[in-house]
TrEMBL record:
Ranges where the RNA polymerase sigma-70 region domain occurs: 14-81
InterPro entries to which the protein is assigned, alphabetical: RNA_pol_sigma-70-like (IPR039425), RNA_pol_sigma-70_dom (IPR014284), RNA_pol_sigma70_r2 (IPR007627), RNA_pol_sigma70_r4_t2 (IPR013249), RNA_pol_sigma_r2 (IPR013325), RNA_pol_sigma_r3/r4-like (IPR013324), WH-like_DNA-bd_sf (IPR036388)
Entry's family note: Belongs to the sigma-70 factor family. ECF subfamily.
Gene3D superfamilies membership: 1.10.1740.10, Winged helix-like DNA-binding domain superfamily/Winged helix DNA-binding domain (1.10.10.10)
Protein's UniProt name: RNA polymerase sigma factor
C-alpha cells in the first residue's frame, strides 16, 4: 500500500470513528446545525492537511477535539466581525410559520438546554461538554484544555450551577408564556 493510500485509509477511519462525536460537540458549542457542520468540515480538512504531524496515535481523539476548538474559535471571531442579519423574504416567512404543536412539545427541552448552553461562557462550556457529552474523564479534559484538574472540576461545577438556574428560569418563562 502506498504512503498516500495509507494516509487516505487512516483519514477515513478517523472520519468514521469520530465524526459523530465531533459534530455533537460542535453543535452544542455553537447551537447552529449548519455552523456545526461547517466547523466539522473545517476540522477534518485541517486534520487531513496535518495528519503527518500527529505524533501519538493514542491521542488522536484529543488532537481532533483540539482542532475543532480552534475552528470554533475562528467561527466565533468571524461571527463577531460579520454580525449582519441578512434574511431573505422566504427565510422570514419560514421562520414565522409555526410547526405542529406535538413537534414543539418534543423539541422544547432540547431548545431550552441549547439556550442555556448558549448563555454559558466558553471557559465553562468546553470542559462541561467534553466530560458530559464526549465522555472524557476530568483528567483527560484537563490535559486537553491545558489547565489543572482542579480548574476543570471547578468549571464543571460552575457550569452545572449556571445550567441548573438557567434551565429552571427558561422553563418557568416557557410555562408563563403558554398560560
Amino acid at each position: 500500500m502506498s504512503l498516500n493510500n495509507k494516509k487516505k485509509a487512516e483519514y477515513h477511519r478517523l472520519v468514521e470513528k469520530y465524526a459523530n462525536d465531533l459534530y455533537k460537540f460542535s453543535y452544542r458549542m455553537c447551537g447552529d446545525p449548519e455552523a456545526a457542520e461547517d466547523i466539522l468540515q473545517e476540522t477534518f480538512y485541517e486534520a487531513w492537511r496535518s495528519l503527518e504531524s500527529l505524533k501519538d496515535k493514542n491521542k488522536v481523539k484529543a488532537w481532533l477535539f483540539q482542532i475543532l476548538r480552534y475552528r470554533y474559535a475562528h467561527w466565533v471571531r468571524d461571527k463577531v466581525r460579520h454580525s449582519k442579519v441578512n434574511l431573505s423574504l422566504d427565510q422570514i416567512e419560514n421562520s414565522l410559520s409555526l410547526p405542529d404543536p406535538d413537534i414543539l412539545k418534543s423539541l422544547s427541552n432540547k431548545e431550552i438546554l441549547q439556550k442555556a448552553l448558549n448563555g454559558l461562557d466558553n471557559r465553562y462550556k468546553e470542559p462541561f461538554l467534553l466530560v458530559f457529552l464526549q465522555n472524557f474523564s476530568c483528567k483527560e479534559a484537563a490535559e486537553h484544555l491545558g489547565v489543572p484538574l482542579g480548574t476543570v472540576l471547578s468549571r464543571i461545577h460552575r457550569a452545572r450551577v449556571f445550567l441548573r438556574k438557567s434551565v429552571t428560569k427558561l422553563m418557568d418563562l416557557e410555562q408563563n408564556e403558554s398560560l
